[in-house]
Amino acid sequence: MQWETVIGLEVHLQLATQSKIFSGSPIAFGAEPNTQASAVDLAMPGMLPVLNAEAVRMAVMFGLGIDAEIGMRSVFDRKNYFYPDLPKGYQISQFSDPIVGKGEFEIQLEDGSTRQIGITRAHLEEDAGKSLHEDFHGMTGIDLNRAGTPLLEIVSEPDIRSAAEAVAYLKALHSLVTYLGISDGNMAEGSMRCDINISLRPQGQAEYGTRAEIKNVNSFRFVERAIRHEVERQSDILEDGGKVVQETRLYDADRDETRPMRSKEVANDYRYFPEPDLLPIVIDEAYVAAIRDTLPELPTAKRHRFMDQYGLSAYDANVLADSRELADYYETVVSACGDAKIAANWVQVELLGQLNKAELAINASPVSATDLGGLIVRILDNSISGKIAKQVFEAMWQGEGSADEVIDARGLKQVSDSGALEAMVDDVIANNSAQVEQYLAADEGKRKKLVGFFVGQVMKVSKGQANPQMVNQLLAKKLG
Amino acid sequence: MAIEQDEIGKIAELARIRIAEEQIGEVTQRITEILGMVDQLQAADTAGVEPMANPLDATQRLREDEVTEINRREAFQAIAPAVENGLYLVPKVIE
C-alpha cells in the first residue's frame, strides 16, 4: 500500500536575551555548572518570577514574522511534573492563551518549489536544567544554569509530508529567527531543539494515523535521519497488519535508530493550571505596531525580490537570502559591479566555497563585498578573463589587496593590444604548420573544433592573459 | 461526582505523595466530598463570564532585560546535601 507521511514539528527556540525569562541570571553558553543559577532558578522558598520584557517583545516579533494572530492577553500556566532538573516541580509555560496564535510561512524545497506550512501557535516558557548521568558514585549530577532560559515553543500544523520538507521547514525557521535577531538558532548549542510528531496513513485517507513523538533531535541531519528511520519502522508495522502505538521515542544518533522511552519517563498528565505567581500579560495595538515598525525585510520577501529584481533562479535566491548578512553582502557586490547574475555566481561558487572550506562566517570573509565587486568589474571590462579572475580572487583571499592591486602587482592585465596579439597569433601559426594544414583541409564543422588548439596555444604563450574574443577574431582572419 | 480508589493511587503517584494502603479508603471519601463542592460550583451559570486567570484586577509588569544576579554558587551549595564539581547530586534518575 502507498503510505502518506504526516509530520508536525515542535521547535524549542532559545531567545537571544541577556538574562533569564523570570530572573536576572545571565544565560551565557558554556559557563561553569550552577554559576548562573540564582535563588529564583533554584526554586528557593519564597522566590517569585518576574517576566523579562525582551522575551515578550521577541515572541511578538516572531508572531508578526509569520503573520500570526497576536495574543493581546496571554496567560502563563504551570505544567506539573517531577524531575530533579526542574526544582520547582513545575515548568512555567503557556497553555490555554499563548502569546502567538495561528500563522503560516513559506518553505522552499530543493527543486525550488514552495509550500505554505501552518503554525498552530507559539508560546513562551522556561527551560529546565541539565541532568548529567555519568557516574557520580551512583548519583546524578544537576546543573541548573539552563533552568529559566527563555524559550519560544513553535508548534506547526501537521502540514509536513516528508523528511525533506521537515528539513526545509527548519531551515526556513532558522533563517526567519536569525533575520529577526530573536535567536542565534545554533542547533549544536541547543538554541533550536526539535520534537517530531509523525504518523502514516493510506494515501487518500482523510483521517490521521496513530502518531509517535520523537524527542529532542538537535541537527538538520538527525531530523532527516530520524524521520526516515521512523517512517520505515511504522510502515513495516502497518504492512504486517499491526498497529502503531502512540508513544514517545528517542532518536539515538550513534545507532541511527529510534527507541521507546521507558513508560516511567513518560508522564503525560501535566495537570496544567494558571500560574498564580504571574498576572496576565496584556499588550496593546500601539505596542504591537511599534514592534512591527522594526521588522526587517523577511527571507521570503527578500527571496521573491531577488528573483524579480535580479532575475535569479529560485534556487540561487534561496541560497543568497538565507541569512541577512549574506544577502547584504550579495547586494553590495551587485551595486559595486552592476551585474546581478555574475555577482550571484561569484558569491555562491568562489566565495561560499572558500568560506565553507575555511569554516568562516560571511562576516569574517577576508574579501569584502566591495572588493569582490571590484574584481567582477575587471572581468566585465575585459581587463582579465574569468580564469585569471580566479587567481586574482585567491590572491585577494590571501590578503594581497584589491583586485586592481593584485592585477597590477602580478602583471595579470589581459592583453587586448591588437599589435601584440597579432604577433603572438603569427608565431603560433608559424610554429604549427602541421596543424595549420590539417585545419585548412578540414570542413567547416571540424574547423570549429580545431581552432581551439590555436586559441589554447596563444593563451599558453600569453600566460592566459590574451583577450580570448580578440584571439578568436584574429585566428579566423589569419587562417582564412 | 465520585472518585474510584485506583484513581487515588494514580493521583498520589503524580503528586509524589505516599498514601498508606489502610488510608486509601478515607482519602477517597474526603476527596469525594471536595468533588461534591466542585459539582456545586459547576452548577453555577457562568454564561457570559470571562474565565479568570488571577483574582487581582491587574496585569503583569515586566522587568528590563538586564543581568542583575551574581554568582552565589558557594552559598547555595553550602546547604545542599551533596555536591561535586559544582553539580548538585541527587539519587540516580535513570538506571
Label the overall shape of chain A.
elongated
Q: Please compute the radius of gyration of chain A using only Cα atoms.
A: 30 Å
Biggest beta-sheet profile of chain A? 8 strands, mixed
Uncertain runs of chain A are none
Put simply, the count of helices of chain A is 15
> Alpha-carbon distance between the termini of chain A?
68 Å
Number of domain modules of chain A: 3
Largest interchain contact:
A-B, 53 and 34 residues
Helical segment count of chain B: 3
The largest sheet of chain A has its strands arranged as 5-6-9-1-10-11-12-13
Which sequence of SSEs, written as H and E, runs from N to C of chain A? EHEEEEEEEEHEEHEEEEHHHHHHHHHHHH
Shape of chain B: flat
> How big a fraction of the residues of chain B is strand?
5-15%
* Major sheet characteristics of chain B: 2 strands, antiparallel
Placed side by side, the strands forming the largest sheet of chain B appear as: 1-2
Oligomer description = heterodimer
- Strand residues, percent of chain A: 15-25%
pLDDT averaged residue by residue of chain A? 91
Total number of strands of chain A: 15
Q: What value does the average pLDDT of chain B take?
A: 89
* Protein structure class of chain B: mainly alpha
Structure, described:
The complex is a heterodimer of chains A (480) and B (95). Chain A is 41% helix and 19% strand. By secondary structure, chain A is an alpha+beta fold. Chain A has an eight-stranded mixed beta sheet. A three-stranded antiparallel beta sheet of chain A has the order 4-3-14, with no helix packed on it. A two-stranded antiparallel sheet of chain A has the order 2-15. In chain A, strand 11 (212-217), helix 3 (220-239) and strand 12 form a beta-alpha-beta unit. With 95 residues, chain B is mainly α. Chain B has a domain at 5-43. Chain B is 38% helix and 7% strand. In chain B, strand 1 (83-84) and strand 2 form a beta hairpin. The two termini of chain B are 40 Å apart. The model of chain B has no long low-confidence stretch (mean pLDDT 89).
